[in-house]
Amino acid sequence: MSNIESEFRKEQEKWLSEISLKNTFKLNALRLVAGVDLAYWTEAGKEYGVCCIVVVDYQTKEIIEKVDYHGEIMVPYIPGFLAFRELPLVLKTVEKLQQSPDLYMFDGNGYLHSRHMGIATHASFYLNKPTIGVAKTYFKIEKAIVNMPKDEVGASESIQVGGEEYGLVLRTRKNVKPIYISCGNGIELETAKAITMHFVEKESRLPITTRYADLETHTKRKEYSSIKSL
User: In Å, what is the CA distance from 187 to each residue of 27, 209, 223?
Assistant: First the structure.
């Protein structure tokens, strides 16, 4: 293990005992939910990234605010330590928000991580808000039991490692690939599932929160990557 991996692991382990898989809010009081995603590109031998956050009204599902921030990526990609690449941009983007989201949904994992410290969980300690991880693909975890849910809307299967529940495989729409849901922090898994399903509409298997953020990253990456000096 390299020195940087060792330091990153220590940082992750520092937060482990602080993770709460209980709701720290009341669902009927939820007002604003933010979707978070990032996209990357390379220019002149340097890697850049853009983070986009889209804030959505929980009841009306209307977009309330959109912000983004881009900059050079200073941390290399190391499997299991993605948060260290993404968190600096995420926090800079959050600073630009005029609204204060009650909850953040990340395009990525949370508790569904070999050390329970995916981006959704890691970021929660800096945001001080409950978080959910919503992943489009499965990040393999050693010895995990992963079964596909029935082809029914809302069907899910628990992802377990050694009898511990790490997350869910969730079928948000019929005849489409499932997504992978996990608690970030300050939330129960069933509540995370309910919120995710609440935001799923006919256009996509993804909740509109992270879907809108994902769409924004494609737009902003194209916009910023055409600029030679970022």
Answer: 10, 17, 36
